[in-house]
Structures are given as structure tokens and as C-alpha cells.
Write a structure and sequence with these properties.
4-stranded antiparallel β-sheet, mainly beta, Penicillin G acylase, beta-roll domain
Length: 122
């Protein structure tokens, strides 16, 4: 802390991501009587990749790793198979409960393929 006027440390952060539109990060400030957090989150992800609160600061780096694959699946007319080559192969169909605060749970059927779950209908 001898390098700053306040005596507190400084956090420098570089996630190694190119500037793009739309931006990778959504900047937000959440505050309640008990806590406050300011930082950047990825849209749709409940959390802050970098930011600070009243007690700590954190960052993320080397954000270049390939962690996502996207496949466009052709679902069979039965809703329980997907095309692989010239044929349709059967898949597992699971019923998942989505809990909704203040409301009844919603139940959705999820098609599980060899490549992972199908997020939603086309």
C-alpha cells in the first residue's frame, strides 16, 4: 500500500479479449442494505467475472479458451431423435423442473443428444 495515496492496493486486469460489438461484458452495480458489488458480467451468466465489493476485488484473465461448441440439430418428427448422416438416432428425453419463485414449477422436456442437450426448439 505504499504506492497509493490511500494506502490501498490497486487491481489491474486484462481479460485478453478483443473489443467487439456487442460487448462481451455487461457492466452492472447491484446494491442491497447488506452488500454492494460493481463489475462486469457476461450477459445471461449470474455472476461477475471481474469487479469489487466492499471487501475484495477480483479479475479474470486469458479469456481466450474455447469452451463452447454450437451444433444445429435436425430433430426427427417424433421429437425424440436427431439426424446423424442418412438416419435419425434415438435420444434420451428428460423432464426437467424449472423452479420459479412465487409461482408453480414449470416442467419442460429436454432432448439429450450425443452432443449434449438441445436448448430449445428451432
Amino acid at each position: 500500500g505504499t504506492k497509493t495515496a490511500s494506502g490501498r492496493p490497486i487491481l489491474a486486469n486484462d481479460p485478453h479479449l478483443a473489443p467487439v460489438l456487442p460487448a462481451h461484458w455487461y457492466l452492472a452495480h447491484l446494491e442491497t442494505p447488506e452488500w454492494s458489488v460493481v463489475g462486469g458480467s457476461i450477459p445471461g451468466i449470474p455472476g461477475f467475472g471481474f469487479g469489487h465489493n466492499r471487501h475484495a476485488a477480483w479479475g479474470v484473465t486469458a479469456g481466450l479458451i474455447d469452451t463452447t461448441d454450437l451444433f444445429v440439430e435436425e430433430v426427427g418428427a417424433d421429437g425424440a431423435s436427431v439426424r446423424r448422416g442418412d438416419e435419425f438416432v434415438a435420444c434420451e428425453v428428460r423432464t426437467e423442473a424449472i423452479e420459479i419463485k412465487g409461482s408453480a414449477s414449470e416442467h419442460v422436456e429436454v432432448l439429450i443428444t450425443d452432443r449434449g442437450p438441445v436448448v430449445g426448439p428451432a
